TrEMBL record:
Any GO molecular function: metal ion binding
Keyword line: Hydrolase, Metal-binding
Top-level taxon in the UniProt lineage: Bacteria
Protein name: Polysaccharide deacetylase family protein
UniProt-listed GO biological process terms: carbohydrate metabolic process
Xref: InterPro entries: Glyco_hydro/deAcase_b/a-brl, NODB_dom, Polysacc_deacetylase_ArnD
One GO cellular component term noted in the UniProt record for this chain: membrane
Domain NodB homology per the UniProt entry, residue ranges: 30-203
């Protein structure tokens, strides 16, 4: 199995810029990847609508146990061009499981995503940021951590979340959020608006890696 590309919060942020051309002029824009864990939820469709209205793509790491009954939401994610990744089936710390249990948590979620999208995702956000290396998951899994933690699940306070993220964010960051709280969705859309006002380009995780 090919080696996984491991994006960690401890890794130094690499400067990434995208060329934007308007007429005869070009400028460089800082880039940020906005990521969402723990969905899909009842709030995800509102988030998708808001991102679509703003012309922004993000990355969603899905729990397998949350997928049933929300297939249309996932199809909308795919249609809108968002990256869809794996967040295990039961939101478990993989290193506390046997190899077989860990593999099942990952593979069952990838299979559930495949049944809806027709694509086996290669990207995984390991719960609690802890990855279990060395297992054969049938496809090479690329673990993705973060560089900015919004702590939206803890505060559940929209102004606090927005201010905390905007104080920390810089070029090349991967922002961790969740799409299972109303305040998180409200915060995410406000953050998008603020980032765009500040000249940031919002990209998916795979675009960040490819740069």
């Amino acid at each position: 199995m090919a080696a996984a590309f491991f994006i960690t919060a401890a890794a130094p942020a690499k400067e990434r810029c995208a060329r934007e051309t308007t007429g005869e002029t070009a400028r460089e824009s800082p880039r940020v990847a906005l990521t969402f864990d723990d969905g899909p939820s009842d709030y995800t469709i509102t988030l998708l609508d808001g991102l679509r209205a703003r012309g922004v793509k993000a990355s969603f790491f899905l729990q397998g146990q949350c997928i049933e009954g929300r297939e249309e939401t996932i199809r909308q994610m795919q249609e809108d061009g968002h990256l869809i990744g794996n967040h295990t089936f039961h939101h478990v710390q993989l290193t506390k499981l046997s190899d077989e249990q860990a593999k099942q948590e990952v593979v069952s979620t990838s299979n559930a995503i495949y049944k809806i999208t027709g694509i086996y995702t290669s990207y995984i956000r390991p719960p609690f940021g802890v990855w279990k290396r060395g297992l054969d998951y049938n496809v090479t899994m690329i673990p993705v951590l973060w560089t900015v933690d919004s702590r939206d699940w803890y505060t559940q306070n929209t102004p606090v979340i927005v201010n905390d993220v905007m104080k920390q964010v810089k070029d090349g960051d991967i922002i961790l959020m969740h799409d299972c709280f109303k305040t998180s969705v409200e915060s995410a859309l406000q953050i998008v608006d603020r980032l765009k006002q500040d000249g940031y380009e919002l990209v998916t995780v795979d675009e960040m890696i490819a740069d």
